[in-house]
Design a protein that fits this description.
By secondary structure, the chain is an alpha+beta fold. The chain contains five helices and six strands. Strands 1-2-3-4-5-6 form a six-stranded mixed beta sheet. The longest helix has 14 residues, at about 105-120.
Length: about 170
């Protein structure tokens, strides 16, 4: 993988990303457990030889960029950063099966807004098909696909937050 330092937290007790995220190399759709999961949050049977999509996956909780309270099995969702070297950074909030609305609390909404502002990026809430339903902009605005369909072209497959929502 990379020469970057080890993340400050371990995945022990969590395998949420192995269910919620799509893995194009396998192919594994989003929302379905990976066939390589050992079960009971014991991790991956092919760790070390896992696909590039898994190797480059960036869980904000594991990397210490999300509060301790946002441990995926506890909070009901995974916070995943997209390509970190591209602007704007996009963070996805992907709910665990059966917990689709776990993200929608005042405390979580405030955390997503703060993250969008701090990173001058967008935090998106995604549905089980991987399409965005909500976008938290760095300006503090929150867009929903229902009220602002123009921000969610192709049914949310793309998010087009207006340029004016970003810091200069």
């Amino acid at each position: 993988m990379s020469d970057s330092p080890s993340p400050p937290r371990t995945c022990l007790g969590c395998d949420a990303c192995c269910t919620v995220m799509a893995v194009r190399e396998l192919p594994k759709p989003a929302g379905e457990p990976c066939r390589h999961l050992l079960g009971e949050a014991r991790g991956c049977a092919v760790w070390g030889e896992h696909p590039p999509s898994c190797q480059t996956f960036h869980c904000l909780w594991r990397h210490g960029e999300a509060p301790e309270r946002l441990f995926p099995p506890s909070c009901g969702f995974v916070l995943a950063a997209g390509e970190r070297d591209r602007w704007p950074v996009a963070v996805q909030v992907v709910s665990l099966p059966g917990r689709r609305h776990a993200w929608n609390t005042p405390e979580n909404r405030a955390a997503f807004s703060a993250l969008a502002t701090a990173w001058n990026g967008v935090v998106t809430i995604t549905d089980p098909h991987g399409c965005a339903t909500h976008a938290f902009a760095p300006s503090g605005r929150v867009y929903s696909r229902t009220l602002h369909p123009e921000v969610f072209p192709e049914g949310g497959a793309i998010v087009a937050v207006p340029r004016s929502d970003y810091a200069a």
